[in-house]
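Table 4 source record.
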Amino acid sequence: MFTFGKQDRLLSPIDFKRVYERKCSVSNQTLIVYGSANALGRARLGLSVSRKFGNAVARNRFKRLCREAFRLTREELPQGFDFVILPRSSKELTLELAKESLLNLTQAVTKRLRK
C-alpha cells in the first residue's frame, strides 16, 4: 500500500515522451508537473532533474522528497494518470511543501486534461 514499486514509476523514454507530447502542464514556485492519461487505472510518477538544478546531492534529495510525497499522497491523487515532475527553482524543498504542491498541481493538470 505505501510502497513505491516499479509499477508506480515511469521508466521508459517512451512513457516520458508521451507525457511531454501531451503538452499539458501546470506549475507553482517550486514544481512543474506534466500530465497525461494512462489506461492502467493508477497514478504513476516520473522525475526529470537536470544538472542545472545543482550537484548530485541536491538532485537526489529533490528526487527522494518527490518520491516520498507521491508515496504518502497516492490515495488522494487522481488515478489513471502519468505525472512527470521537474524542479522550478533550486530553493530548498521540504516534504510538506512537496506534498502540498504535488496534490494541488496534479489536481490542476487533471482538470485541464479532462476538458
